[in-house]
Amino acid sequence: MRLISEDGKQMGIVPTRQALEESDRRGLDLVEVAPTAKPPVCRIMDYGKYRYEQTKRERDARHHSHQVKTKEVKFRPSIGEHDFEFKRNHIVEFLDSGHRVKVTCFHRGREAAHQEIGQALLEKLVDGIQEHGMVEMPLKKVGSSYSVVFGPRKAKG
After folding, report:
1. Which CATH class for the 70-152 domain?
2. What is the CATH number of domain 2-64?
3. Bridge partners of 120?
4. Would you give the DSSP letter of residue 114?
5. How many C-beta neighbours within 10 Å does residue 151 have?
6. Distance CA 119, CA 102 (A)
7. What are phi and psi of 31, to 5 degrees?
8. So what's the pLDDT on residue 155?
9. Percent of the chain with pLDDT over 90
10. Do the Cβ atoms of 145 and 104 come closer than 8 Å?
11. Which of 29, 100, 123, 133 could form a disulfide linkage to 47, CB 3.0–4.6 angstroms apart?
């Protein structure tokens, strides 16, 4: 097998017994790095320390990655103009901070007879948010409600 020392220097091609003795002499582990190579490549290292550093790197990578969350905003067809603008501004804030937003307009009781009002409300919202977000899932009717999903716009440059 080809043997590599803990500092990365090649020690040449040695028999397995000699590689095991060398790793025991140094108080480290013998780890097979490339088993399919001809001859197989092994490295002398502290495997526990290697695994610890690897999990630490993975944890740091997860910590620094940004996860997109889906926020949900609900409307009713009888919403007032001020309330509509207030919720629209919240949607804009969510999109600008990089979140996905699901907007639902649901109907109760007699409101279900005029579902076109809810549809028109969401179409008005789609037109008002074009510069802040893009429609990921178009307007869709589910039961007695309409929903649309917005995604954040990618930053230019």
Report:
1. alpha beta
2. 3.10.20.80
3. none
4. G
5. 17
6. 15
7. -115, 130
8. 55
9. 54
10. yes
11. 29
Which amino acid appears at position 147 of this protein?
Answer: S
What are the C-alpha distances in Å from 44 to residues 3, 24, 28, 90, 143?
A: 8, 9, 6, 57, 64
Task: Give dist(CA 135, CA 131) in Å, integer.
Answer: 11
Place of tokens 């009002």: 117
3-state DSSP assignment of residue 63 = helix
Q: Which two tokens stand for residue 33?
A: 């790095």
- Which one, of 70, 68, 65, 92, lies nearest residue 137 by Cα? 70
Q: Say how far apart CA 33 and CA 51 lie, in whole Å.
A: 14
pLDDT confidence band for 157 (50 / 70 / 90): very low
User: What length is written for the chain?
Assistant: 157
Rounded to whole angstroms, the Cα distance separating 134 from 121 reads 17
Q: Three-state SS for 127?
A: helix
Reported as a single tens digit per residue, the pLDDT across 41-84 is 999 999 999 999 999 999 988 887 767 788 999 999 989 999 99
